[in-house]
Amino acid sequence: MLPPELPPLPALTRAEAELIDRYLEVVDLLGRINPAHDGDTYRGLRAAQALVGRATALRDALVLMHQRGESELHAPTLARALRVLDGERRTARVTVPPPAES
C-alpha cells in the first residue's frame, strides 16, 4: 500500500524555496542539539559543528532574496510550504517538551 499523497507545494520563487530548505536544515540541527531531548553529547556536537555552515547558507538565501528585491516574506505561503515539508514535526524538536506528569 502506498503512503498518502502529500499536498502540492505552493508556488515559490527559487529564493523562497532555498530559504525554506535552509531554514529546515537549521531547525533539524537545532532539534538534534536540544538538551531537553534524549541523545548523546557527540550527536549534539556534530550537529553544532554543522550548524555553522547551515546558518551561513540560510543567511545567503535571505541575502539573495533581498538582492532580488523580494523584500517581504509571504508568511501564509511559506507556512503552507513548511507544513507540506513536515515543518511542524521538525520544529517541535526545537521546543522544550511539556513536563511529564507524575
Low-confidence stretches: none
Radius of gyration: 16 Å
Q: What's the order of the H and E elements?
A: HHHH
Strand content: under 5%
Question: Number of helical segments?
Answer: 4
Strand count, sense and barrel status of the largest sheet are: none
Distance between the termini: 40 Å
- Class by alpha and beta content: mainly alpha
Task: Tally the structural domains.
Answer: 1
The pLDDT mean sits at 91
What is the β-strand count? Answer: 0
- The coarse overall form would be globular
The percent range for helix content is 55-70%
Descriptive notes:
This protein has 102 residues and is an all-alpha fold. It has helices at 14-33, 41-67, 75-84, 87-92. Helices cover 62% and strands 0% of the residues. Helix 1 packs antiparallel against helix 2 (41-67). The radius of gyration is 16 Å and the shape is globular. The model has no long low-confidence stretch (mean pLDDT 91).
List keywords for this structure.
mainly alpha; globular; 4 helices; 102 residues
Topology:
Layout: H1 14-33, H2 41-67, H3 75-84, H4 87-92
Helix pairs in contact: 1-2
Short description:
The protein is mainly α.
